[in-house]
Structures are given as C-alpha cells and as structure tokens.
Design brief:
Layout: H1 3-6, E1 16-17, H2 20-23, H3 28-43, H4 45-68, E2 75-78, H5 81-91, E3 99-103, H6 108-121, E4 124-128, H7 137-144, E5 152-158, H8 170-179, E6 183-188, H9 199-202, E7 206-210, E8 222-226, H10 252-258, H11 266-269, H12 271-280, H13 283-304, E9 321-325, H14 331-340, E10 344-345, E11 348-351, E12 354-360, H15 367-383
Parallel strand pairs: 1-10, 3-4, 3-5, 5-6, 6-7
Antiparallel strand pairs: 2-8, 7-8, 9-12, 11-12
Length: about 400
C-alpha cells in the first residue's frame, strides 16, 4: 500500500492491525482537527455549545449529506449505529403479532434491541436463516423474502454484515420492500467509505452508518437518516431542549435529535475533514486496492483453516472485510493468543453457534500483514489444540 498513507495513521507500528472493522482508526489530519475543536470547546464552552457549535454541526451535517446523497435536514448525528437502532425501535409502532423481517446475520447489539422491543409488545423478530455458501445475489434475495408475511411491518437488514463480513444486496431488497409498501431500515455501520452510498437512490426509508469506522473520524461519530415522511414517528431517546423548543428551527427532527443536553460533540464536526482527506487521496482507488488484497488472500486463509468460503470471492459479496469460519472451542483464548504472542489484532467472533475469524484491510495494510496472519495460524495449528481442522 501507499507508504504516505500508512504514515497518516496513528496505529502502533508494532502490531499487525487487521481489525479496522471494529472501531476504525483516525488519520492524523482528522485527529488534529478533532483536538482543535476540543480545545476550542474548553477555551469557551458556553459559546461553543450554544452558538458556534450549532453552526459547526450544520456545516458538518451538510458535508455528510452531500457525501451520502441525502438532504442535510434528513440526517442527524448520533454516537453509534446501536443508538440509532434504539431510537427507531423504541418509537416504532409495533403491536402484538406484528413482524420485523431480518436475517440471522445481524449485528448482535441491534438484534438484541429488536428482540427486546418485540418481546415487550408480543411482536415477532423473523430471522430468515442463511444457507452457506451463498451463491448469487438473486438467490439471497429470493430466500430472504420467504420470510415475508401479511404481518411484516418493517425490513431491517445489514448493508455489510459484521461477523460474516458480507455485503448484502440491500439495493434489491429495498426496491422489493418498497414495492410491497414496507418500511425499510438499513444498518450500514460498515458501509460509508467502503461502498458508494447514495441514499436518494437506495430507497431505504431509514439508514444508519458509522463515520468512525471506514471514514476514519474519531470514535462516537455516526448518523441516522430518516425520510421526511417518517420523521414525525420517532421520538429522541433523550427528551431535552429540542422538545417544545423556545427557539425552534425549521425542523422538529433536527431539534428533537440534535439537542440532547451537554456533551462533547467534537467528533461529529470532523466529518468534513475526513471527507476532504479521502478526496485528496483518491479514496475510491485506495478502497479498490484494499478489496483486491482481501480477495487475493481469501482462498489461502480458508485453506489453512480447512474452511469453505461463505460466499463467492467477488465484488458482489466482498468489500474490505473477509470472514472465515474457524473451528475453535475457545475463540476468546485464540484471539488473546494471536494478540499477545503474535502481535496480531484480529477478531475471533462468535455468532450463534459458529465462530468467524475476520480480517479487515485498510490503506496501511500490505500483503506482509496477511502473510504474518497465515504464518501464525499455521503455527497455532501445529503447536496447540485451539484450532480444529
């Protein structure tokens, strides 16, 4: 990868970092801008929080909206996608026997959120089973809608799955759901900066994504998009000054969800700097190089672990994450061993009754990083009983 880009990250050079997917990592210009905002906040907190910060938020929200293809008044910043899912799930008008249609591949925290609110009212979370290996997008879509029923009230689906690292055909699913009059909610935590995103053409009614992952902003920077026609349905998680505001703006949606009391929202303000950094460094080409490195190593890692790929090694299903099934009874112990002994930061994740090893590829990663991983896995197989074949 580009040496100049590698030098822009603050990551410990002594660690083979293959876990960008979990929390991302800032590049230097973005982190420096973040610290400047924090210093400005501490130097004059009253003016920052009540006056200047609101204008900064508007500027940042506008830059984000241009980047993801939506109206700036239809998107608000939140700390993480789980916060966004809770916001929607808590207010969504679910009744007894209503159904939320989803997959069995969803992120654990979001899956738990829907499960919690469904149980409160006697609704059902319909998790359509996924049969691996996947074959085509068309087959996935057809199988997903086998879970549809007259009781379905919403489709909730990942854009790019977390534990299995698969890009799902959300464009096709949103189009079909729209034709059936269903509300669609896409969890795009991993999507911004991994895939081109245009919310005007995607047809998702609700979308959440993280800026602190692949967009490389500080932690705690994510967004919630809701189409105008549905915004009045959703209350904020925190009722604060935006409710019956003494100085209401043109948008109740913004007032409700943006004004949540005293907090450091500096991370939200760094989005324009991150977008500028990506534009200056031709990030679409960087991402394409990362995808090629992902695909080039997939078969080798699968072979070492005696595993079958979860999906075709193609752009239809893969972006900058790759997950391989791994047979281990102690995934947490294996993850610790990889870090403590081999200095590799990589997740070994449980999902239902399966375990997955997932590597992430960002601009600083090289073939050498994947070679280090392959060598470590071979050594662990040869010297321990942690990995079964």
């Amino acid at each position: 990868m580009n040496t100049h880009l590698s030098s822009q990250f603050l990551l410990n050079p002594n660690i083979t970092f293959l876990n960008f997917g979990s929390f991302g990592a800032c590049v230097k210009p973005v982190f420096e801008r973040y610290q400047q905002y924090q210093l400005e906040l501490e130097q004059e907190p009253v003016q920052f929080i009540t006056v200047k910060g609101l204008e900064y938020l508007k500027q940042s929200r506008t830059a984000l909206a241009n980047y993801i293809g939506c109206d700036a008044d239809d998107v608000v910043y939140v700390t993480n996608p789980s916060y966004a899912v809770n916001t929607i799930a808590k207010s969504f008008d679910l009744k007894k026997d209503d159904e939320i249609l989803t997959t069995d591949l969803e992120y654990g925290a979001c899956d738990k959120t829907w499960s919690y609110y469904c149980k409160k009212v006697g609704a059902k979370l319909i998790r359509v089973p996924t049969t691996f290996p996947l074959t085509t997008k068309e087959d996935f879509v057809a199988n997903f809608f086998k879970g549809l029923s007259p009781k379905t009230k919403m489709v909730f689906i990942n854009h790019i799955t977390s534990s299995t690292g698969i890009r799902l055909p959300v464009e096709e699913i949103c189009a079909i759901a729209k034709s059936k009059g269903l509300i669609t909610f896409v969890d795009g935590a991993h999507a911004p900066a991994q895939v081109p995103l245009n919310l005007q053409t995607l047809q998702a009614d609700i979308y959440t994504g993280a800026c602190h992952k692949w967009m490389m902003t500080p932690k705690g920077n994510s967004f919630l998009y809701v189409k105008k026609q549905y915004q009045s349905l959703f209350d904020p998680l925190v009722i604060s000054w935006g409710y019956e505001s003494a100085f209401p703006s043109h948008s109740q949606f913004l007032d409700y969800h943006q004004l949540n009391g005293t907090r450091d929202f500096s991370a939200f303000l760094t989005t324009p700097t991150a977008i500028q950094f990506m534009q200056e460094n031709n990030w679409h080409l960087v991402a394409a190089q990362c995808r090629e490195l992902v695909k080039a190593n997939a078969h080798n890692i699968c072979s070492i672990l005696n595993a079958e790929p979860l999906a075709p090694i193609s752009d239809d299903f893969l972006v900058q994450l790759y997950s391989t099934p791994i047979k281990t009874a102690e995934p947490e112990k294996l993850k610790s061993l990889l870090y403590n002994q081999y200095k590799i930061e990589i997740p070994v994740m449980r999902h239902a009754d399966k375990v997955y090893l997932r590597y992430s590829i960002q601009a600083f990663n090289t073939q050498q990083d994947l070679d280090v991983l392959a060598s470590a896995l071979k050594d662990i197989i040869a010297t321990t009983s942690l990995i079964e074949l």
